[in-house]
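Please fill in the sequence for the structure shown.

STRUCTURE ENCODING:
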């Protein structure tokens, strides 16, 4: 089907027990999930969450992609966030796209967790009311056919644990569907094979016990409040992640994120309240860049970052502004 937009079925499309279990886990994670995952929801560009370095690095990349497209003279943009959670990344992109001069912005996020979608709609209500902005959030999953038309999306996102939750056997179909709708860039992050532990739905100290069975891609969590969660979760190697998308996209970058920062982050429950050592943080940044693509180190990062472009598409980019990536604190 080659039309720009497909008929959209408003009914939730959640396929199979695996997706339902994942949806239930994130539905029940509570209002604190957004702060745990993305930091302060009222300060979009503060980047003070659990993986602050990775967030800053991803945002610098996304902002560059926006600027590249705007530099071509484009005044309209289509954005898709597959597995949007509470909608933080889509709100960041829509807000920045407006600041850069895009006058028509079509942005859609979807997630299996209804509670997260409802939260995204609430937080985005001011952006949704802006003239020229069509910002929507739906309950759906990646197992469904996307309603977007062929090559209708300039920028497609699938960040953090989304691809880790889907059945591995479905990844070829999912990657083909993402490639079908994407006219420009696809950016994804996944959990790497040697990443540090996480319980996904909340901070790790909320767990009494947890265990990941890598052979079966099964993850079991027992929270301190007595709640039990079992859900599918896959850890990726670099070559494996590349294999699912290299046949459909040109891979621009594939690297580890948070190889060092995560492991050196101070813990307020233990470390003294010391002033931020900028020289040490700058050295960590240097080490991240030096080792992010080295064999062994990338797969021991907290995340793997994939940056891909639809085949046959080239964008002439403007020079990156001095001083990027963004600063460590405060709004950018």
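FILLED IN BY: designer on duty
SEQUENCE:
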């Amino acid at each position: 089907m080659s039309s720009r937009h497909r008929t959209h079925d408003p009914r939730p499309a959640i396929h199979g027990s695996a997706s339902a279990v994942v949806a239930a886990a994130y539905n029940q994670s509570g209002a604190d999930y957004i702060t745990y995952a993305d930091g302060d929801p009222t300060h979009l560009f503060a980047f003070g969450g659990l993986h602050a370095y990775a967030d800053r690095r991803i945002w610098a990349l996304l902002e560059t992609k926006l600027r590249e497209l705007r530099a071509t003279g484009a005044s309209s943009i289509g954005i898709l966030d597959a597995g949007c959670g509470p909608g933080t990344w889509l709100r960041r992109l829509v807000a920045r796209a407006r600041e850069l001069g895009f006058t028509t912005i079509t942005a859609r996020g979807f997630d299996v967790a209804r509670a997260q979608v409802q939260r995204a709609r609430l937080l985005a209500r001011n952006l949704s009311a802006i003239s020229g902005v069509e910002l929507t959030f739906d309950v759906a999953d990646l197992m469904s056919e996307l309603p977007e038309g062929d090559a209708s999306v300039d920028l497609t996102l699938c960040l953090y644990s989304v691809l880790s939750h889907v059945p591995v056997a479905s990844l070829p179909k999912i990657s083909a569907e993402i490639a079908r709708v994407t006219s420009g860039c696809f950016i994804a992050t996944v959990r790497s094979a040697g990443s540090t532990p996480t319980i996904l739905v909340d901070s790790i100290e909320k767990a009494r016990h947890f265990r990941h069975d890598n052979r079966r891609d099964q993850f079991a969590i027992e929270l301190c409040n007595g709640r039990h969660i079992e859900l599918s979760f896959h850890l990726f190697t670099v070559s494996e992640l590349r294999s699912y998308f290299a046949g459909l996209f040109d891979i621009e970058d594939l690297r580890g994120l948070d190889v060092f920062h995560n492991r050196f982050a101070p813990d307020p429950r233990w470390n003294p309240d010391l002033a931020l050592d900028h020289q040490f943080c700058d050295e960590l940044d240097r080490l991240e860049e030096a080792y992010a693509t080295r064999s062994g180190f990338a797969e021991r990062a907290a995340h793997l970052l994939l940056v891909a472009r639809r085949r046959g598409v080239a964008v002439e980019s403007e020079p990156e502004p001095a001083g990027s990536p963004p600063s460590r604190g405060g709004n950018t």
